[in-house]
Amino acid sequence: DDDATGKDEL
Amino acid sequence: MNLFRLLGDLSHLASIFILIHKIQTTRSCRGISFQTQALYVTVFVARYIDLFFRWISLYNFFMKIFFIASSVYILYLMKYRYRPTHDPSIDTFKVEYLVGPAVVLSLIFNYKFEFTEILWTFSIYLEAVAILPQLFMLQRTGEAETITTHYLAALGAYRALYIPNWIYRYFTEDVVDPIAIVAGLVQTGLYLDFFYVYFTKVLQGQKFELPA
What we know:
Chain B: Belongs to the ERD2 family. The complex is a heterodimer of chains A (10) and B (212). Chain A contains no helices and no strands. Chain B has one domain (3-86, 94-207). Chain B has a two-stranded antiparallel ribbon. The radius of gyration of chain B is 17 Å and the shape is globular. Chain A binds chain B through residues 2, 4-10, and chain B through 5, 9, 12, 50, 54, 56-57, 60, 63-64, 67, 111, 120, 162, 165-166, 169, 174-177, 179-180.
């Protein structure tokens, strides 16, 4: 689950 | 998206424009480490492979495309267009010492043992140390063109700004990404010496020169 990580960062 | 994150990304964008501007106006890539630039291409390609399977936002999409395209363009400028101005004899850091440990660490410390997840982790670890060949080169020559130091300062600021961004996200969104945070702290730490000289010399109007 990506929701708790910073994968929306560059 | 918060202000720190946005300023960080803008600083990252600015660093790339400064670098391209430096190469094109001086018609030279003197003082720039090809190895560091090649590592950045590796970092972006490994991390942004998620363009194919993870949609985040239009902002995120265009930034990723820009970072991949501009980093490849910089390699092209260095390798072909201004090749004679690049001196490989001072750009001698052994990148294997960075890529190897990044591969091993990403296989051990990751969130999930899956191919794309490991690629993402690898890119985070590799980015943390990708600036080392450049800093090593700076150390060796003991000086840098002012524009090159502005490039490095903008790149370092991008990383430094991500730190308050994580603190902010911890409190407002409950997002904590230990891999990104630890690697990011290491990465920012590598710039401390550089920042010291940048603030005490370059911003006072002096040339960037290291004590002999």
